[in-house]
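Final report, Chapter 2: Outcomes

The project's central promise was a pipeline that accepts a single protein chain and returns its three-dimensional structure in a standardized token representation, suitable for archiving and comparison. That pipeline is now operational. To close this chapter, we reproduce one record exactly as it appears in the project archive, with the input sequence first and the structure output second.
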Amino acid sequence: MMITLRRARSIDAVALPAIERSAAELFRCDPSLAWLADAQVTDAEQHRRAIEMDEVWVAQSPDGVLMGFLSAVEVDNELPIQELSVGQHFHGQGAGRKLLLTAVAHARE
């Protein structure tokens, strides 16, 4: 599958909480981490602010559906990742890896 990576836009913010929630469902497989599946996710307004101020990339499917996102904050020439989430039905297709490689390439610039 062809995955398009791009900087997130403000309009993308409304889709990111659902992606984060979907990705968190994987934690239910590990009893010690299951509580994370029910934890509060970042709301759309917080995502919108991050998109405006920080480094946020999205992975998009050929039909325009957002598959996942990575959010990072540049601090003192470092780029710590705040969140990396890929929707459950897109797991195993390389979106997370591509998002991570994009952030690494950006950090090296």
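Archive annotation: Residues 4-108 form a domain with the Aminopeptidase fold (CATH 3.40.630.30).
This record, like all others produced under the grant, will remain available to the consortium after the project formally closes.
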